[in-house]
Design a protein that fits this description.
heterodimer; A: 571 residues; alpha+beta; 6-stranded antiparallel sheet; 5-stranded mixed sheet; B: 457 residues; Beta-lactamase; 5-stranded antiparallel sheet; 19% strand; globular
Chain lengths: 571, 457
């Protein structure tokens, strides 16, 4: 074995230059093919209107119920609009459950909701129950089981198994092409860690696919994109800190497990509601533990050292925060204030302020904005929140002047290229040196700059693998965002669409701060790039957030985090 | 549900910022990528503050420097010494800004491939300098400090720009010790970075100003008694020159006559013409900017103003800029801007080629012609035409007094009024004594070498 390696090293110089010449084109082409195949189904799937029940009115007219959670009211933006003076603007919420049962709840209406003549707050509906909303009588007629089966068969299929296998094969080839590049140009002593790192990702992605296949789930696009990003991250680590590939791989394994666990807990809405309380407590718990036992690195006390492992619990709190913020429609409509959630957000931001973790606080704040707006729809609330942030920001600058320094450097990095602008000017120099196609593995020089594998990983990828690939990595995250917006319309519950949108927002904002901070379009905050930056907890957090996006994927048999519809297995 | 669905646009906003920012960055990359790559300290291109890859040759393709990790300089000692200040040293004490300015072109950078094609080898920069002339100039300086500049005022090519003291980068002396001050300012490129008291070479400026603004100046005569008194102070000549005209005053370098001419021109006009002739303006070419000169008569007594018109007082000129002014006189009021890098190529591709650009019109053609004839007269009647065989040299010498008991700086500036050898020059020998006697022999050797090089081409 040792002899073979020696022989390989001796002869590789002959091929190395030619191979790098080939690899510079092969890598972006493979990536483009792979991403197009993954992204197109996510952005173009048909969102057929589905009818789950009919509301039969006394006059014989029928109103289709097209969602699982429906607001009934006089307001035009209601899902079921009944334009009758005695009907309140938001009168009641009609909710369907996994087992096909329906309930109606009063959304604080003036005249109340009557079922069979009795006023109710919340009531499970049986067939032929008479519902009266503001004097308008109606009956709910759910679709039959047969219709339901037919409907689910018509739903867009996520992908055929073969498409997924083909995608995974392309991804595997992509990874192998990269690894061979390292073997031809890299240092011999790093070979084993590089092989372990990339090999581990390949193994992990196929294992997850086999698991999906056994539970008859076919959609693998989101996961493929995530594995693609993990591969790029592994490439940055292989260059910058080859000794940490296995550590990052382990974090990815844990991330995938977290992804499956959260997905499972989201699969059943009732279960999800219970887990929500656990998440709320855990979210604050993580931060409090860090505050008490944490260690300060680079000015922020956001690290927890346990048995030699360094953790950044605020990354996990993000997942909990999304959980805490998600809510079902009946809850949104019946308990209309956000006070508890605001208190919770302030608590979390307070902890982060005490930790001096500026970047994380900003992300939580944006996540808060998304949740607050999705739930209340009130621009006022959002404006209030932004004002509060402005005050908090002024205070923060008083307390922590180093935060202000980031803003003074912003758009002025070339004026102080050796001190405050050092990382970013080197990043830009190296991005440009790499051009669109990159210089090849381990050929970059940005690796000697601090945080080349995390805070400025975008530039490290651009330098060695080309700007095209680095830009693709950003587009990948944007796709998560677009998909969450698209799928919101067909979501079963607002719990899922709020969850997915918030989770995707956090991913998008982190990418925004990382990538645009590196290239000096935004202030440099030292936030991690999801899936890509070196950092265990960040990796786990990113997979955890992806679970929420996955849970909103309602295409036929697409997501393990969505319960399979009756009869669809037959199809 | 409808409502929540509609509100998801908020996330669209974040995506929009992300993608918008990305587009902004890509646009920035397309416009400024070459600047980023070639910015001082760029890891792939620089070694310390100097460019880290490529080859530099002189105009005759003599290898001056192979920039690699080791930096291999020219094979002979004299060339290494005479060109060092344009190439930079190994430790980064001397920064070669002109070559580094073309770092992007040398790198073979393009937006698609970055620096992939030339990574590690770099391109070739061809300088306008001639190693042969540089060496002749260095030898002629014979260990004295100063600078010599010669450039083609028709094309702008700088043939010679030597600065001394210098050293052999392959055999670095113990500069820190500096016995007897012989290494003082050794890292300085005097041609670019220094300013000097011009002394009498400044009389060319005063003469030009007088020709521009005093209508009957050519008809006037001035009498020199060896001294013009201003209260307790005075302007003096070494001997009384008697009756002189503007032309003979310049030839004899008569201070007393120029004190009178200064009065005719007046402060306001003098300031105006110094500005118009760009005498003190920094000169910028190939990414280098020369030192700014000085002409300040805002709060001067008449005697000081008189001295300022003779090139003393607080006057300061930069050699490269003054050489350009000489070129402009030769060119009839306008000349080519000097440059030092003529071409950069990467493999077969020429990534940069210098173009001749003209200076502003500094003075009228008529004035330039008259000054030219005066300066020609100087050489014929005073400095000796035989020193420059085959060359139609026009010049003015200067002996700038430094005060503090120091020997004067010897200065000599002018040009060759010849279609085949359109060369403007300046010679500065620090503490060199009399301008003409010190500089003429030096210039004689340098111009002869220039002529030979140009004939060879």
């Amino acid at each position: 074995m040792e002899d073979m390696l020696e022989l390989f090293i001796a002869s590789r110089d002959t091929y190395a230059a030619d191979y790098i010449g080939f690899l510079r084109y092969a890598v972006p082409i493979l990536a483009a093919v792979l991403l197009l195949r993954c992204v197109l189904p996510l952005l173009t799937f048909k969102r057929e209107p589905e009818i789950w029940a009919w509301l039969n009115l006394k006059d014989g007219s029928q109103i289709p119920i097209t969602h699982w959670e429906n607001v009934i009211g006089r307001s035009k933006s209601s899902d079921v609009c009944i334009n009758f003076p005695t009907v309140s603007r938001n009168h009641a919420v009609l909710t369907r459950y996994d087992d096909g049962s329906w309930t109606i709840s009063d959304a604080g209406s003036k005249d109340g909701v009557l079922v069979n003549g009795k006023p109710v707050q919340i009531c499970a509906l049986k067939e032929r129950d008479r519902i009266s909303i503001g004097g308008v009588e109606m009956k709910l007629q759910p679709i039959t089981e047969k219709q339901e089966i037919r409907q689910s068969q018509l739903r867009t299929k996520a992908a055929s198994g073969w498409d997924t296998v083909a995608n995974l094969l392309i991804l595997t080839i992509f990874q192998c092409v990269m690894v061979l590049g390292y073997l031809l140009t890299g240092q011999k002593e790093h070979f084993s860690s590089i092989l372990e790192g990339f090999g581990g990702i390949i193994l992990c992605q196929w294992l997850l696919y086999i698991f999906y296949a056994t539970i008859h789930r076919s959609s693998f696009e989101l996961e493929t994109i995530a594995f693609f990003l993990c591969t790029l991250g592994m490439a940055a680590i292989a260059t910058v800190k080859p000794g940490e590939t296995v550590k990052q791989l382990m974090a990815m394994f844990l991330g995938v497990v977290t992804f499956l666990a959260i997905g499972w807990s989201l699969r059943d809405l009732e279960r999800a509601k219970i887990f929500r309380y656990v998440a709320v407590v855990a979210g604050v718990g993580f931060l409090l533990v860090t505050l008490v036992f944490g260690t300060e690195y680079y000015g922020a006390k956001n690290w927890l050292i346990i048995g030699g492992m360094s953790l950044q619990p605020s990354e996990l709190t993000k997942v909990c925060f999304v959980f805490a913020g998600a809510s079902t429609m009946d809850r949104i409509m019946t308990k209309r204030n956000l006070i508890l959630f605001i208190v919770y957000s302030v608590l979390i931001c307070g902890c982060l302020a005490l930790m001096n973790d500026f970047g994380a606080a900003l992300i939580f704040f944006c996540a808060f904005l998304v949740i607050a707006y999705l739930r209340s729809g009130s621009v006022g609330t959002v404006a209030l929140a932004i004002t509060a942030l402005a005050f908090a920001g002024v205070l923060a600058f008083q307390i922590a002047p180093h935060a202000l320094q980031r803003f003074t450097t912003w758009r002025h990095i070339w004026e102080d290229p050796l001190y405050t602008g050092y990382q970013q000017t080197r990043a830009l120099m190296c991005i440009a040196s790499g051009g669109l196609l990159g210089l090849g593995p381990e050929q970059g020089l940005l690796q000697y700059v601090f945080a080349a594998d995390s805070d400025i990983a975008f530039a490290t990828i651009a330098e060695e693998w080309g700007l095209i690939l680095a830009v693709m990595s950003v587009l990948c995250i944007a796709v998560f965002g677009f998909f969450s917006i698209r799928t919101a319309r067909v979501a079963r519950s607002s719990f899922y669409s709020i969850g997915a949108c918030t989770a995707a927002s956090v991913l998008v904002i982190q990418t925004m701060l990382n990538c645009l901070g590196t290239v000096d379009v935004l202030p440099f905050t030292g936030v991690t790039f999801p899936f890509l930056s070196n950092g265990g907890t960040s990796m786990i957090g990113a997979w955890g957030l992806l679970a929420f996006v996955k849970a909103s994927d309602t295409r036929q048999n697409a997501s393990f985090a969505v319960r399979m519809q009756k009869g669809s297995e037959v199809a | 549900m409808n409502r929540v669905t509609k509100r998801t646009w908020l996330m669209g906003l974040f995506i929009f910022i992300l993608l918008g920012g990305l587009v902004l960055f890509l646009w920035d990359y397309a416009r400024n990528g070459d600047d980023w790559v070639s910015f001082t300290g760029s890891p792939h291109l620089y070694n310390n503050t100097n460019i880290g890859a490529g080859t530099v040759t002189d105009r005759s393709a003599t290898m001056l420097l192979d920039i690699g990790e080791k930096r291999t300089y020219a094979s002979d000692t004299t060339t290494r010494k005479s060109t060092l200040h344009w190439l930079g040293d190994r430790k980064g004490f001397i920064s070669a800004s002109a070559v580094s300015h073309y770092a992007a072109e040398m790198s073979g950078f393009d937006l698609v491939n970055g620096i992939y094609d030339t990574s590690g080898t770099g391109g070739t920069a061809t300088l306008t300098l001639s190693a042969r002339v540089q060496n002749a100039a260095l030898n002629a300086m014979a260990g004295r400090k100063g600078t010599i500049g010669v450039y083609n005022y028709k094309t702008g090519e700088i043939l010679c720009a030597v600065t001394t003291p210098t050293y052999d980068p392959d055999n670095v002396p113990d500069i820190g010790e500096n016995p007897g001050g012989e290494y003082e300012g050794i890292y300085l490129n005097r041609f670019l970075q220094s300013t000097y008291i011009p002394g009498s070479i400044f009389k060319v400026v005063t003469t030009s100003a007088a020709l521009e603004c005093v209508p009957d100046i050519l008809d006037k005569t001035f009498t020199c008694y060896g001294k013009v008194e201003y209260g307790e102070e005075s302007v003096t000549c070494e001997t009384a020159h008697g009756k002189v005209t503007l032309k003979t005053a310049l030839a004899k370098s008569c201070n007393c006559a120029f004190a009178q001419i200064a009065e005719l021109v007046g402060k306001q006009n003098m300031v105006k013409y110094v500005e118009r002739f760009q005498v003190t303006e920094p000169l910028a070419f190939d990414g280098v900017t020369t030192a700014r000169g000085n002409y300040d008569v805002s709060k001067t007594a008449p005697v000081s103003f008189a001295w300022s018109c003779i090139g003393q007082y607080t006057d300061q000129i930069n050699p490269a800029r003054y050489m350009t002014l000489m070129g402009a006189i030769a060119g009839g009021g306008q000349a080519a801007e000097p440059y030092i890098v003529s071409k950069v190529s990467v493999g077969e591709d020429v990534t940069y080629e210098a173009k001749t650009t003209k200076t502003d019109r500094l003075m009228s053609g008529e004035t330039a012609e008259t000054v030219k004839s005066f300066m020609r007269n100087n050489v014929q009647s005073v400095y000796g035409d035989w020193n420059f065989p085959g060359l139609n040299v026009c010049a003015k010498s200067g002996t700038s007094q430094l005060g503090g008991g120091q020997t004067s700086n010897a200065m000599f500036a002018g040009f060759v009024a010849d279609e085949s050898y359109p060369l403007a020059f300046i010679v500065v020998v620090e503490n060199g004594g009399y301008g003409a006697s010190t500089c003429v022999p030096i210039l004689s050797k340098v111009l002869t070498e220039c002529k030979a090089v140009m004939d060879g081409e």
